[in-house]
Amino acid sequence: MPTDTPNEVFLQRWKRTRERIASTGAHGILLGGGSDLAYLTGYEAMPLERITAFAGKLSPPDSKPALIVPALEAARVRPRPSVYSIKSWGDSTDPVEAIAEEIPDSGTVLISDDLWAMHVIGLQRRTPHVTLIPIGEATGGLREIKSPAELDALAEAGSLADRVMAQVQGGEVSLVGRTEVEIADDISGRLLAAGHDTVEFVIVASGPNSASPHHHPGSRVVKAGEIVLFDFGGSFNGYCSDTTRCVYTGPIPDEVRFVYTILAAAQEAAVLEAQPGRSLAEVDLAARSVIGGAGFGDNFIHRTGHGIGVEVHEHPYVTKLNNDPIEIGHAFSIEPGIYFPGKWGMRLEDIVVIEADGARRCNNSDRSLLEV
Amino acid sequence: MPTDTPNEVFLQRWKRTRERIASTGAHGILLGGGSDLAYLTGYEAMPLERITAFAGKLSPPDSKPALIVPALEAARVRPRPSVYSIKSWGDSTDPVEAIAEEIPDSGTVLISDDLWAMHVIGLQRRTPHVTLIPIGEATGGLREIKSPAELDALAEAGSLADRVMAQVQGGEVSLVGRTEVEIADDISGRLLAAGHDTVEFVIVASGPNSASPHHHPGSRVVKAGEIVLFDFGGSFNGYCSDTTRCVYTGPIPDEVRFVYTILAAAQEAAVLEAQPGRSLAEVDLAARSVIGGAGFGDNFIHRTGHGIGVEVHEHPYVTKLNNDPIEIGHAFSIEPGIYFPGKWGMRLEDIVVIEADGARRCNNSDRSLLEV
Predict the structure, then answer these.
(1) What interface predicted TM-score (ipTM) does this complex get?
(2) Does residue A320 sit at the B interface (CB-CB below 8 Å)?
(3) Is A19 exposed, middle or buried (0-12, 13-18, 19+ CB in 10 A)?
(4) Which of A73, A172, A296, B98 sits most deeply, having the most CB atoms within 10 A of its CB?
(5) How far is A83 from chain B (nearest CA, A)?
(6) Other CB atoms within 10 Å distance of the CB of residue A80
(7) Is the pTM of this model over 0.80?
(8) What are phi and psi of A245, to 5 degrees?
């Protein structure tokens, strides 16, 4: 996040966050570093064992949140007295003490889903009258409703990833005879050349490896006559891209072509379902029922998607269990997959952003299974 | 960790871990990914929001631990039936259910210090008769007693970092007129060229930035006649290096030279104190009392050191509060610092490993403040 973001942006975000906390019946919030803390303060905490925390309460109504930082990192924090007070803790003290002073001493406090256990347990002992609730459970992600500018940033990042995917699909990235890791390095370079600021991840999974959804590119050499799955993304101006396509290194067998037809239909069905007012579970079920109806239900072994923004994976998650409504400003992936362990697998992924009239795709490279 | 590590290594580690759990009076263990899980299984879990867990119990005595993985990552796990059973959980289920079945249903369970709050709270609700205790609090780090082979690996990594530090001290890395970030990039390349497999971090802090211990290298151009602090490390064969030295770009003012004398004496005092049988707090106090005695106590704003191994920061921590005894096989940094906010700062850091007759230094580049 640019450090010159005006205070007004953070004050607005804290105002909306307060409203959101209040709507859950909670009395305060505690974030232990990470993207939510950066979203509310502009400060990127170091992800080490010394906790940086953001603590705020609803009462009194004009109470200002505190940014609680390790003493040795205090010099890295930009003072923004209108937004937060700064409090530092030293290595000879327990940070739980500093934190406990800045949250309500009774009632409910929403905490980061990934706050460390040592701090959770420490706070439970120190503030026995406070109930700690993971924020994702209480109210989803703080950052899940994006502004129109954020949605445009996601679309722009998506178009950069599409450019690289078009190079793969167009045969500009040579595959047969190279190892997965060589191809992944090549793609990393292309993601940066296309304009991304960072490469977030690159999956290249060939032949039987394509049946492992989170395959780590390795020393396997790509052969002729097999499927190769590409799933990659980077970030641009702080927002992430993430897209998946498969190609075939030779003539496509009928069986593979048939299964791909089912996959593409499932993805399309889920995108059509992604509209304000429907639930996230309905999107998952739209994809799942097409794949299940064709007899491959047991081969679709993951959720349909995940939210995306300043992190590659964030709220809202598109799962069978998430009955939360889809809202304007949501941004998430739609990425069904069909996998045959030990043989091959395939996945098709676009990021969509939700607008008043439905889902807008941020990825628009060719959605067919191309022969390269 | 190489995937060809024999099962015997993991069986031995689990045996020692069981003894350690038993010695705290606890009944089971739950690790949520990370280096401890890799240490006990050889499996490097993906650090994403889907939990990978290692769960084990002491009773019955022959009970085998479970490696609990997201279904879509199950294909990445190498089966080791003599070491652990594999259990997968799907995106349409709550992983807390799968985990709860693999831990004791009453008594005390040690959990990773950094287990996510959503899983801690989920387990507390699901298994109300179990008390969860952060493992660091109960028994320090699982990996904190290193084998002689591990200590040698740390010494080897240290010597690679020393090679780069000698280049800095010898004037081979040009400083004046370049930005911190340019110099940091240069050093990253040299860390790899020296033989590291990865670069873990590079701090280059010049002039007033040296007063910020965790300064992130930026666009500041190094000038003549100022201090420049270098703190960097990488990993080699899975073990990390970490060392800090300062240089001066021109004649060294008397005041700076004097303060550096105090710093070097404090570091030496702490290294001499680092012997089996003494406590970690005594090492911290040895450095702190030299610096405090010279009148700079308020300018030493962090702990004296941190453990190191497969992670740059791990147990044991060398703080005023840690009264645990120093043991043969410990490995940690000794890195006092003296900082004058807005002006300049300095730090001197070596990794030491503890052997029967005291501390062996893994870093041996020149410990003086050199003019470059």
Answers:
(1) 0.87
(2) yes
(3) exposed
(4) A73
(5) 23
(6) 18
(7) yes
(8) -140, 160
Identify the burial level of B327 via C-beta atoms within 10 angstroms of its C-beta, where 0-12 means exposed, 13-18 middle and 19 or more buried: middle
Strand, coil or helix: what is A364? coil
pLDDT at A2 over 80: no
Residue A31: how many CA atoms within 13 Å on its side-chain side?
Answer: 24
Give the span between the Cα atoms of A218 and A209, in whole angstroms: 9
Tens of pLDDT, residues B177-214:
999 999 999 999 999 999 999 999 999 999 999 999 99
The SS3 assignment for B297 reads: helix
Give the best residue of A4, A31, A92 to mutate against chain B (max B CB count within 10 A): A92
Task: Write out chain B residues lying below 8 Å of A90, CB-based.
Answer: 301-302
Measure the CA–CA gap between A43 and A52, rounded to whole angstroms.
Answer: 10
DSSP symbol at B116: B
What does the DSSP assignment read for B121-152? HHHHHH-TTEEEEEHHHHHS-TT-S--HHHHH
- The stretches of chain B forming alpha helices (DSSP H) are 7-23, 34-41, 95-100, 117-126, 135-139, 148-169, 180-193, 254-273, 280-293
Count CA atoms within 13 Å of residue B165 on its CB side.
Answer: 32
The one-letter code for the residue type at B256 is V
Q: In whole angstroms, what is the distance from residue B82 CA to residue B12 CA?
A: 12
Contact B118 A113 (CB under 8 A): yes
B236 backbone dihedrals φ, ψ, rounded to 5°? -140, 125
Q: How far is A49 from chain B (nearest CA, A)?
A: 8
Tokens of A232: 């990659």
Q: What contacts A340, CB < 8 A, 6 or more positions away? A: A211, A299
- Residue B280 neighbours by CB under 8 Å, 6+ apart: B316, B317, B318, B319, B322, B323, B324, B325, B326, B332
Label residues B89-107 b or e (16+ Cβ within 10 Å = b): bbbeeebbebbbebbbeeb
Question: Residue B344 phi/psi, 5° resolution?
Answer: -160, 165
User: Quick one: average pLDDT of B153-168?
Assistant: 98
Q: What is the pLDDT of residues A332-371, one digit of tens each?
A: 999 999 999 999 999 999 999 999 999 999 999 999 999 9
A115 contacts B132? CB cut-off 8 A: no
* Euclidean distance between CA atoms B226 and A262, whole angstroms: 66
- Look at B117 and A118 and tell me if their CB atoms are within 8 Å: no
Residues B216, A72: C-beta atoms closer than 8 Å: no
Region of residue B221 (phi > 0: left; psi between -120 and 50: alpha; otherwise: beta): beta
Q: Distance between terminal CA atoms of chain A?
A: 39
How far, in Å, CA of B280 to CA of A213, rounded?
45
What is the nearest CA distance from B277 to chain A, expressed in angstroms?
22
**DSSP notation for A305-346:** EEE-SSSSSEEEEE-TT--PBP-TT-EEEE--EEEETTTEEE
User: Does the CA dihedral B277-B279-B283-B285 come out positive or negative?
Assistant: negative
Among B residues 321-360, those touching chain A with beta carbons less than 8 Å apart: 321, 341
Interface test with A, best of B111, B130, B214, B335 (most A CBs within 10 A): B214
Q: For chains A and B, what is the number of CB pairs under 8 angstroms?
A: 120
Q: Give the mutation candidate from A94, A118, A137 for the B interface (greatest B CB count, under 10 A).
A: A118
* Residue in B280, B209, B194, B172 with CA at minimum distance from that of residue B243: B194
Distance of CA A9 to the CA centre of its chain: 22
Q: Is B76 on the interface with A (CB under 8 A)?
A: yes
- Measured CA to CA, the distance from residue B172 to residue B26 in angstroms comes to 54
